[in-house]
Design goal:
CATH class of the largest domain in chain A: Alpha Beta
Strand content of chain A: 15-25%
Largest sheet of chain A: 6 strands, mixed
Distance between the termini of chain A: 26 Å
Shape of chain A: globular
Number of helices of chain A: 14
Oligomer: homodimer
CATH architecture of the largest domain in chain A: 3-Layer(aba) Sandwich
């Protein structure tokens, strides 16, 4: 009998109770709720594990929990975040977002998939390793931040100021990760960049009776017209010079796509859509998904949006737009192109507001030791072979924390296809959670042996 | 000393207290609040005045107060409504919308300008006429409805079913009316039509993480693209065949515009705008204001509209659109053209929802007795000569209640430029209110003598 398994089995109830305890502490960065309390909890847990851990306070009160444990030829960075998305809309949760209720073999809580489940799973796996296997064969450096869900505002500065501490890492196990719709574990080797802007259009100084719209400008129309110049049918981004910065995928990158089994029919059925954008399928679909930038209206508002009719001429309209970036687009470049594009078309009255600083694209070589170790570990632990995504479609601070310091990173985690990160009824399946511990143990061993 | 004036002066406090009492009874049709209570109050007041009055109940519980008083060669219809707009947003009111507080010579209340002030002013003027002048020289027919602010849903049916009761009227004093920005009383001889629709775009069956927007359709973009085909720069309505139905103004109609003194600079300053649409001025501005249709985005919604950023791919987007109609556009025609236009451009997925049945255009001949009587009365009562608007820019059930029965109508009332109908801090100036009684008295006398 494997001692690691024996230990995990024996501590199963305590491990789940601890995960529930972490999930019951709200820690919403966007609303500045419970952040310091949560950071203290993470710090105490790492110290209890035996790590040399401390809180590193950044400007604005941002708190990074940093901890080191173990020793070995290789150094593994583990990146996680203890902050979570806002729980709203509350009415769509079957049990409260902070209840951490268990039903049907799943634990439901805001942040359990993104990313407290992975954080606690990794800590508990190391506890089990130390108790049941022995000394760690690698040096582990924990970086656990509390601003990931608001764009990791201060993490680039943290990485810069603590370069000496971090750059010795040989690889990074990145936060998040899940199984796909056919139960195959996904390993991600990169992230898209992101920049999030608001476009604001202003009309009269107050709302007016809509009969005046014959002669007084309607900001909702101004916004609509400005937006329609940014992207149009066939999903083409029309911002001047935008697409010309996007480099074509290399043959190796295209080969990586061909190796991804993507169950289009199941995914479409799950999302309730008749077709993907432009009826794309196969490699072309995956190419757009992973290697092309996006320009998404995440929010749109003007005037009266309640029941029934109100004949009002609004005096303000805005859109929230999220750009996901691929090489060689950067947040600064996109904002600059966007402003110039609007100005060139007479939309200088549309104000472009940057809500966050944005994040850059990151990609890790598929043949780096951390990626190879993750593939080996996944093959050893999971029933299905892993799928390697050369990049995820999402974003995060991988560039400043890893790529800028020359550290390859891979993301793998205990979520599943229907974990509903950022959405009501976020959940992790209990069996995936425990399987994740075996993956962490296997990754440590294989990474040490590379 | 004029006996009418003596009576009004002597009853000043009671009249204001009564107006406050009417304003303190909420009667919001859209929210179905206080409608029956308010109808009973109006009925009781008309009976107290000596009118032969009754409640006429329509399907859906709609209540029209109908009353007759006086006799004479001519019959004057008085149309008012006792329902009011919703009071929201409450936080922008300086005193509560149902407080009917008086300050700076104004009475502030939801509905005092639109339209309880005119309703009570007219009743009190008739009371004063009867008490101080003598028997009424005309027959008066009151039609006071409770659904005006939700599109007078059942009034066309009322007018149809009670045609025999109504069609003997020779003219109608229409609800509402105000002084312009330079204190000149406005007389309106028509209304634009209106149709109010919602456009809905649907995406996946639930909100998704915005990284999926690379391959899953975004309904906010679909809506934006559909909208941008309806109207574009220079405010041109581009719906197929829409503008070809709009007949050009006649020379007489253009002459009527030339007689309107419109203080563009004062109005722009008040609205806080640098220019009117397309930099229009003069007769061209008034032509667009009064003789051209509108297509206005009154409301726009999709996804996340709170503070900061949420990287969500919305699954639903909608716009609320108000069309103001001129001859020869009708509500049915506009909805039909809109649907065909969208379908022709591949936007059959955009659902067009009709929230109300719409209202048709109405215009009264400028030389009809009721209009001439109103002009004479205004010249006699007000310090400044009246301005004749061949049509107002707003809408109402004037077509089914008056034009369809061959009854010319004119609107004139006790509001002023800054009465803020439909907006917070709606108000009527006390002196305008009393001046309005003298106008009603003069109108009755002149209309009887025509």
């Amino acid at each position: 009998m494997d001692k690691f398994k024996t230990y995990v089995d024996a501590n199963r109830d305590r491990f789940i109770a601890e995960l529930q305890d972490f999930c019951r502490q709200p820690s919403v960065a966007a609303q500045n709720i419970g952040i310091r309390e949560m950071a203290q909890k993470v710090l105490a847990r790492l110290q209890q594990l035996g790590a040399n851990a401390r809180l590193i306070e950044l400007p604005g009160g941002a708190l990074v929990v940093y901890g080191e444990i173990g020793s070995g030829k290789r150094t593994l960075m583990i990146y996680d975040h203890y902050d979570v998305q806002p729980p709203e809309p509350l009415e769509l949760w079957e049990t409260g977002p902070w209840d951490a209720a268990i039903r049907d073999g799943k634990l439901f809580a805001r942040g359990v998939a993104d990313n407290k489940g992975n954080l606690v799973c990794r800590i508990q796996a190391i506890e089990a390793y130390l108790a049941a296997v022995g000394a760690l064969p690698v040096k582990i450096k924990f970086v656990v931040e509390g601003e990931e869900e608001i764009g990791s505002v201060h993490l680039p500065q943290f990485a810069k100021e603590n370069r000496a501490l971090l750059e010795s890492a040989d690889g990074c196990l990145w936060e998040s990760g899940s199984k796909d719709i056919n139960e195959r574990p996904i390993l991600g080797c990169g992230l898209k960049g992101i920049v999030y802007v608001e476009l604001h259009a202003q009309g009269a100084i107050r709302d007016l009776h809509s009969s005046l719209a014959a002669i007084v400008p309607d900001p909702a129309w101004r916004l609509t017209w400005a937006l329609s110049t940014l992207k149009y049918a066939h999903d083409h981004i029309l911002i001047d010079d935008f697409m010309s910065h996007v480099r074509a995928p290399t043959p190796a990158e295209m080969d990586a796509l061909k190796a991804i089994p993507y169950d289009e029919e199941k995914v479409k059925a799950d999302y309730g859509i008749a077709a993907f954008i432009c009826n794309l399928t196969g490699v072309e679909l995956l190419k757009k998904y992973l290697y092309e930038p996006t320009c998404t209206i995440c929010g749109l508002y003007s005037g009266y949006i309640g029941e029934g009719s109100k004949t009002v001429l609004p005096n303000h309209a805005f859109a929230k737009i999220d750009f996901r970036l691929v090489p060689n687009l950067t947040p600064d470049l996109v904002v600059d192109l966007l402003k110039k594009h609007l100005a060139r078309r007479g939309f200088s009255d549309i104000e472009v507001k940057l809500t966050e600083t944005g994040e850059e694209v990151a990609r890790s070589p598929l043949d780096s030791p951390i990626v190879r170790a993750a593939i080996d570990a996944a093959n050893a632990v999971y029933a299905n072979a892993p799928i390697i995504y050369p990049t995820a479609a999402g974003s995060g601070p991988m560039y400043p924390l890893c790529q800028a310091l020359g550290i390859p990173a891979v993301n793998a985690g205990c979520g599943w296809y229907d974990s509903r990160a950022h959405a009501p009824n976020e959940n992790v399946r209990i069996e995936d959670y425990f399987e994740g511990m075996f993956f962490v143990r296997a990754l440590i061993d294989r990474f040490a042996a590379m």
